[in-house]
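Side project, low priority. Logging it here so it doesn't get lost.
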Amino acid sequence: MKQTLRRGRGAIAPTIISVLVFGLVAYGEEIDAELRVKVDAKLPEIRRWAGDPTIVKEVRSQNEAPSETARNLNQENCKSLSVLDPLVREFSKNEVGRFLKSVKGDDVAEAFVSAANGTKVGFLTKTTNWSHAGKPKHEVPMTGSVWYGSVEVDESTGLQQVQVSVPVLEDGKPIGSLVVGLDISRLNEQPAPKTKTPP
């Protein structure tokens, strides 16, 4: 299945990638096998973050009754805000932002949580887009699957990273998504996870 991804802001020539779905994982552009193993090793931890009661509660709350700030922000006015703007800090300093900051390691370049409609619930740092509705990094987790992106330089952090997104589940149903950008240089510093030898 071929799917078109638009990255960053503004008009960019679309990149056609092959997305292969293996069970509950959707992979973007091919990443080398060594890097994939390291990224896969982070998946259980990222799933635990998405299942934390703080994340689930705040996503449910925004789905049911978005804050005034969440209702008033959109793609265009969010782009004009600096990282120090009080409206931006409202999302980096809220319960979700504080939780993400408390669990992130040196290999996490960015992380953000989106409500069911793709708008932000909280993040580590200001994201390039206020809403990721219609983008695979949000829509795939909303089907209950996990999405892996391609290796790229992220506009909001300036770091070469690969993103992985997982569903935020409540009673087994997706109610939002968590996207985590993993710093490639930090991942490459880590030893490859040990694989179990069959008996």
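Brief comment: The chain is about 35% helix and 25% strand.
Revisit when time allows.
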